[in-house]
Fold this protein.
Amino acid sequence: MTAANPGAESAIELRIDKIAQLFNSLDPTPFRRRDLDLDAEQHIVAWAQDIDRSRALGLVVHLPPSEAESPLAAEVGPAIRNYFAYLDEKETARLRSLARDGRNALAIGLVILAVSLVSTYLVATYVPFSNLSRLIEESLVILGWVGIWGPLEILLYDRVSPLRRRRLYRRLAKVAVEIRSTGAEPRAA
């Protein structure tokens, strides 16, 4: 990985023997639509997470000369970018679903909170004051806040990691991929 000056491109480096090692061998889809191999994906994502967001991402794939000069070498860059664009779409759909679930849960939570607060008021107003009535009031207030806790957690906190992943996938969907023949001059893909 290179780290020159701020704003410069930072390269993630992969050394492989065959282009096929980058992709899931069980995926029957055409080359440009194939899923990345899980190890390759994890390696790229792990390195990309460590690169400052102000830097452009680059991916350098080192291959033996016979593989680097094959017709598939020119397809590696678009295939990798397509894969991360696909992950971005999946993460966006997951975020939409999470927001919808959060809104639905919030509506239910607000009803629970309203019912518990009204019930607390009714207990305080119509039940003679005692330790038992105080216990019931406090229990109803706690129930109301517990009912709202889950929805707020979904809407405020559960979205942080998916948003970070989506941002990373969007960066990776634009990654500049360079094919380098081991022992030869670099070639863009």
